[in-house]
Amino acid sequence: MSYDKITPPDSGTKIEKMSDGSLKVADNPIIPFIEGDGIGMDITPTMRHVLDSAVEKAYDGKKQIEWFEIYAGEKAVKFYGEDHWLPEDTLKAIEEYKVAIKGPLTTPVGGGIRSLNVAIRQKMDLYACVRPVRYFEGTPSPVKQPELTDMVIFRENTEDIYAGIEYQTGTPENKKLKDFLIDEMGVTNIRFPESSSLGIKPVSEEGSKRLIRSAINYAIEQDRDSVTLVHKGNIMKFTEGSFKNWGYELAKEEFDAEVIGEGPWCKLPNGIVIKDVIADAFLQQILTRPDEYDVIATLNLNGDYVSDALAACVGGIGIAPGANINYETGLAVFEATHGTAPKYTGQDKVNPGSLILSGVIMLRYMGWNEAANLIEKGIEASISKKRVTYDFERLMEGATLLKCSEFGEEIVKNM
Ligand SMILES: NC(=O)C1=CN([C@@H]2O[C@H](COP(=O)(O)OP(=O)(O)OC[C@H]3O[C@@H](n4cnc5c(N)ncnc54)[C@H](OP(=O)(O)O)[C@@H]3O)[C@@H](O)[C@H]2O)C=CC1
Ligand SMILES: O=C(O)CCC(=O)C(=O)O
Ligand SMILES: [Mg+2]
Question: Which residues carry the post-translational modification N6-acetyllysine, per the record (predicted)?
């Protein structure tokens, strides 16, 4: 593949997807990375240092990641020029090297460019946003029993209102759509038609089923107890309600699930329960009875809200990791759940834990479990010694405040 402005490292090997579905990962895979805006400049170098140290230690120097910097966001504009927020080079590199990791990217509110994070997911068709939420012993938490929270969120990543089909009030497109809805579809309940902006929420059977299928497959592989479909189908009957119905249909047709009692809950032959809950009730129950939930499958916007809320239960957004995956093509981009936290940019202050743990999921995806285990051990030990960044330190008694890079060193020391 030829690139316009970037050059892959001289040494290193591409990760390949094999015909049996597995990934072929050499001892020196090339991994593209996007530094990210805002605190990206703080957390990304720390993440790379921790991953490199873990790989070196786990494999006695026999394995090594060959990092390949690619660009998006503000750094892309500096490197490629005005309006080049997501260069073609970047998409090509992700496609060519299959597995990449990124820092957060800024999205302006109410105007300006649409989300580059969402664009990467949509353009690469990374339909499953997988966000595991677990508790690390000793982490400060606002809930009484944070150790009861152990969930893996599967958030649909390509549809829903994130499709960006929106028409601002006052534009000709908005008027055209409104006229169509009122005159041809007989819509009477747009409360203030003259001043309403409009948005469209596409939710498909195919998109819902592939996401729910990946959640059920994960539950089977990881021996989990249940998969819960989280939706707001009482209000949005044909989008969120259909998501729920398609989920049960898939469980029965593809996984031989049997209906429990009157239904609609059902059970797979291996005992995994498929159930559903309305999103607002779910958001209160994750605080009151988190142990009733395990793998979660939900739509894009619900998944966004649920991710940050669950992260808060186990110590905050500073240690909430994520992955964007297409299980058919094998393409995967790993990224933290949090954003660019601009007020902390360049201060070497924030918690790099989210991006480091995203790196841990990436190592597991590559089959490098020994290195992943070392990093988790290092994080656990650093937290239990109360040597932590500001977000944990302000909530812990007797903790030592570390900078972002110092926390990275602490993890390495404790591996
Ligand atoms: N995937 C992505 O790239 C994402 C990008 N974004 C984008 O990021 C920008 C900022 O979004 P915003 O809503 O402020 O959300 P952020 O997640 O960036 O920050 C909100 C708050 O979360 C806390 N926080 C975030 N990251 C860390 C960390 N690493 N360590 C410790 N605390 C952390 C801070 O809390 P406190 O103030 O209490 O210290 C911070 O003020 C927006 O442009 C948004 O669109 C948002 C989410 C995801
Ligand atoms: O793209 C953005 O700016 C926000 C994305 C986000 O909040 C998320 O992925 O959780
Ligand atoms: Mg979010």
Answer: 144
